[in-house]
Specification:
By secondary structure, the chain is an alpha/beta fold. The protein has one domain. It starts with a helix and ends in an 11-residue tail after the last strand.
């Protein structure tokens, strides 16, 4: 199917339905594995552990933040990146995101995706997404709702270009609301740091 024909067809389908449907198709067609080699997570939260586990299944090595992500970046994670390269994903508190952003910058890395996940309102979890290709895929995966939210995000990060032409044309809304898990009533961030030389569509303002 040509891109123009696809876009004409998508125009008559509600965005949420189209994004959900075509994201699923793209995954089944083999949207590629990422180059995420490490994942930083806050082990105190079940959702963060789920996020890390999903990326470990894709070959990443997990690094618990232990309340001090700077220590992780200046220790085991730095050694890991010097050996294997790649990018780093995370699900942490906002303070650990800020620390990771600065530590990554020292290693020539930049934020290519950032999500905030606010569960402080009873009964719902609001996701605000910023980034390029990653945020489009996260948006589509959250709309589908076929997996827990933290796992959906992890599965979406760093995918290769097969899904991009489809999802980018549809998933423009940066805010998604899902049901909050019973175990989470706080505020977390998800993020993806990649080498500055890694081609990616940036978010405006970064």
């Amino acid at each position: 199917m040509r891109r123009r024909e696809f876009l004409k067809g998508a125009a008559i389908v509600p965005a949420s339905v189209a994004a959900s449907r075509w994201s699923a198709v793209a995954e089944k067609l083999g949207a590629g594995r990422s180059k995420i080699t490490a994942v930083v997570y806050d082990e105190r939260y079940a959702d963060c552990r789920m996020f890390a586990d999903a990326l470990v299944r894709r070959g990443a090595v997990a690094f618990p933040a232990g309340g001090d992500s700077v220590r992780v970046w200046y220790g085991a994670l730095r050694d890991h990146l010097s050996r294997f390269g790649g990018s780093v994903a995370g699900m942490t508190t906002d303070s650990d995101l800020s620390a990771s952003r600065e530590c990554g910058r020292e290693l020539g890395m930049r934020i290519v995706y950032e999500g905030s996940h606010d569960g402080r309102v009873p009964g719902r979890l609001q996701h605000r997404l910023r980034g390029g290709n990653d945020s489009d895929r996260v948006y589509a995966a959250l709309l589908r709702g076929d997996a827990p939210w933290a796992e959906s995000i992890a599965r979406s990060l760093g995918r290769l270009a097969l899904a991009d032409d489809i999802v980018n044309a549809i998933a423009a809304e940066p805010i998604v609301t899902t049901r909050v898990s019973d175990a989470f009533r706080g505020y977390l961030t998800s993020w993806h740091l990649a080498p500055a030389a890694w081609p990616v569509r940036d978010a405006s303002g970064w």
